[in-house]
Amino acid sequence: MITDIELMDRARGVAELAYSPYSSAKVGCALVTEAGRIYLGCNVENASYGLTMCAERVAVGRAVAEEGAGMRWVRAAVVALGLEFPPCGACRQVLAEFAMAESRVIFLSQGELVSMGMSELLPAGFAPADLNG
Description:
about 30% strand, 5-stranded mixed β-sheet
């Protein structure tokens, strides 16, 4: 099983490939699914800022494309080269859509690894059941 540090290293590696000419923030995500597979994503910015794809959403999209709509993730590591921050609100919601109760997001804060569950990271997020009445 891959360690949190190894997962962060994978996220750091893919962050190097990011396309970020507007923010200069190179972000990478390494996502481990329930099936034990690892998917990587980096941010891909766009001159029309709303069309920018965040690293986490790219990784989730890749995982769904490979494993299907039933894909669930267990751990996600997020790295922003030279910066420290957790996933943005939009990414938190997308991650929550495919999370399991035990899913954890790992990121750096003040130089330390932080691991948070989705209920901590997105305490009042939407769930698919909320939309079905």
